[in-house]
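Exam prep: given the inputs below (a chain plus adenosine-5'-diphosphate), describe the expected output before reading on.
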Amino acid sequence: MTDPIIIVDDIHKSYLMGKEAVPALRGVSLDIAPGEFVCLMGPSGSGKTTLLNIVGGLDEASRGHIIVAGENLVALSENELARLRLHKMGFIFQNYNLLANFTAEENVEAPMVLAKVGRRERKQRAMALLEKVGLADRSHHYPSELSGGQQQRVAIARALANDPPILIADEMTGDLDSETGFAIMELAAQLNQDGMTIVFVTHDPRMAKFAGRVIELRDGKILEETGD
Ligand SMILES: Nc1ncnc2c1ncn2[C@@H]1O[C@H](COP(=O)(O)OP(=O)(O)O)[C@@H](O)[C@H]1O
Ligand SMILES: [Mg+2]
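Solution:
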C-alpha cells in the first residue's frame, strides 16, 4: 500500500473568544492516499474550513499532528511551511481571491514569481494552464472583466502554477450557479483523473457526488464516511 499523502492525527483546535475557548475541531483523524478525491461536508460551523486550513498550513492546530507529503507541519519553520504550501498544495476559495490589478495571466504567474521561475517559462506555463482551464482567450482580462465561473477557472489555473500534487478547495462552487458549478467540478474531476489528490468542501450534495469519498463533520468531529 502507498503511504498516505495527508495524515491528520487527532487534531484539536480551539479559538479564543475573549477568555472563552470555542472548540472548532475535537479530535479529527484521517488518512488520505495519493490520488484520492475527498469531499468534506457538514453544517455551517462544523469545522470544515478549520480542518482545510490546518491541513493547508494556513492555521495551526491546538493539539495533534499533520503530515503532508511526508513533512510534519508542526515541526516546520514559517519559511519551510511557505515553501511546502507553494510547491505541494494549490488553494481555491469560494470568492476566487484573485489579485484585482493583475490580468488573468499575471494572476497565474504570481505563484511562479514566488517560486523564482524565469519570466519566459512563467509566461509559457501560465498560457498553457489558462488553455487547460478553457480561458486562453481571456489571458489579458482583469478579474472584474470575467464572470464568476471564469474567475474560478483562473483561480484553478493559479493553484496549478507550481504543479502541486494536492489541491485544497473551500466551497469553490459556492458562489456559482449550478451549471457553472458542475463545469468547475468536471474540471476538478479531470485533474483528479490525471493523478491530483483533491480535498474539497461543499454544502451541495450534487457537487459531493463527484468525490470518491465523502466525510461528514459535525460539531468538530467526523460523523461518518461514505465512499466507493
Ligand atoms: N477565527 C476564528 N475565531 C473564532 N472562532 C472561529 C474562528 N474560525 C472559526 N471559528 C469557529 O469555529 C467553528 C468552526 O468554524 P468553521 O471551521 O469555519 O466551520 P465551517 O467551515 O464548517 O462552517 C465555528 O464555531 C466557528 O464559529
Ligand atoms: Mg467554512
